[in-house]
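Box 3.1. Reading complex inputs
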Amino acid sequence: MSEEKESKQIVTVIGGGSWATAIVKILSEQPVKIQWWLRHKEDVQYVKKYSHNPKYLRDVQLNLRKVKACNNINEALEGSQFVVFAVPAAFVRPILKEILPENLKNRIVVSAIKGIMPDENQLITDVVEKEFNVNPKNICLIAGPCHAEEVAMEKQSYLTIGCNDLKMGEKFASLLNCRYVKTSVTDDIYGIEYSAIMKNIVAIASGIAHGLGYGDNFQAVLISNALQEIERFIQTAFPLNRNINKSAYAGDLLVTAYSQFSRNRTFGNMIGRGYSVKSAQVEMNMIAEGYYAVKSLHEINKKYKVELPICKAVYHVLYEKISPAVEIQILRDIMR
Amino acid sequence: MSEEKESKQIVTVIGGGSWATAIVKILSEQPVKIQWWLRHKEDVQYVKKYSHNPKYLRDVQLNLRKVKACNNINEALEGSQFVVFAVPAAFVRPILKEILPENLKNRIVVSAIKGIMPDENQLITDVVEKEFNVNPKNICLIAGPCHAEEVAMEKQSYLTIGCNDLKMGEKFASLLNCRYVKTSVTDDIYGIEYSAIMKNIVAIASGIAHGLGYGDNFQAVLISNALQEIERFIQTAFPLNRNINKSAYAGDLLVTAYSQFSRNRTFGNMIGRGYSVKSAQVEMNMIAEGYYAVKSLHEINKKYKVELPICKAVYHVLYEKISPAVEIQILRDIMR
């Protein structure tokens, strides 16, 4: 009876990438219905026919009794209580344009995006809140450390749900709790969001250093300095009594900066090895969120004026064509 | 003239392992004389003949105009201003027994050892201070993050020198500063010492988890929790306004827990894959300091009663024969 009642819960997941696919998989462990929006009709048909995403995490077997794929966004939003955005930040604006305002009304809107809207320098959660009149209490954020690829393999992972309203956060968190995912909840939504954004930039720096031949000793010092840099920024921008070494902050940074799966680190590595920004992007065929994030953060930090030497180095390399070797050398000399 | 004056400085380095060899290499960049003690006569003869350590960091070419190897410890101590101990903690006691008390008098004693004297539960620095009447102001500690193997390759590395007397710390630090090593100085000698000791234990836990098949997501959460665990312990035992994310603490933990060179991690990995403690030790033919450290810390913590779930798990696996899978599962369930 209780299961039947719960099973009426409907979650919309927006996005066809690896993180969206992982979230669909995690949610499928619960007695919920998932309305999954993918942009391309062919992908929707493929999912319906083969129970797999044709492009990302192709090994993941989807449970079609629970998952309904479609490529009409307003159809995907019909009757749902939760809406999870899991697309690259750069794709949010065009998607929002397609959504009828009433279709986000009274929904709990969850951002699984770690990025800033390019050229707008706004967080996705802020845009949704303002433009769709969503109550800030109804906005949640999913923070790592969690590589989608390991979720696919059902390796033990941890997620932190940020929400101004802790009860609401717990409500959504309970949908993600399963045999291989443990969740916790925080109301430091800005702190975990900016930390998640900055860690992508740090991962690029980490990749650049690796590509230039720097070793593990250097990497460890870089990450120590990055933890201090992230703390410095979020404590200035959003002062709060927080422990930066909790897994939503430090763990998320570590998994991204040290992992083979990190596309930001891979992107940085190619830059360090001498690829141009453009050719690294073409070669990867994936979007490294940090590439956009560093530009936005550079703008946002004009207000706060926090010392961010690592982010500055990445900004210089990606946007001002300064040599990676020169920028890492500057970092090398100021770090301790 | 100034070089000639400086060149009268004599540093004794005690130990023939990879870290001792790396320190001899770093010191050789300065205008000093190094009197290097190695236990075995054959090794001394090999060094003199071939300018290489026959057993560790064999690629490192030693500058024999500066380095004088010998296997008589009191001869190695003759006329030196600095004495660097770089042997496994378990070997300190027998070495100290051979040293004539006057030979440590008025010396600056530097510990490059990250461990606790087995069965005594004392730090090496404390033993030297008490038993040889060395002024605490004349005791320094070298803290990582620094793999000897990367020093051998002249990869950019960072060292932190701990000393109650910052001026004295800087004096020794200046001998380690060179083209590929940057140093900083702290008076938090206990903090960096215990942090360095605990990171070896964490690296064992990290290796065990890896050996059991846990992935990067889990590892990142483990290390985040470890940072909090180390901070909890040193803040309780030695309260101070310190930033645990500085490289002497966090960086040292990262390089050890994430690096392929870490013998503690390798040891843990073998345990996780099913080796017995004894067979892992025999197979590795190297001492994983964390093995002894966890036992001492377990004793020391009886006084402080700090919650140390990661250290407890490693203690249980190594000393109470509890299955690694069970202990990591307990950690898995309490971590967030």
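In summary: Chain A has 16 helices and ten strands.
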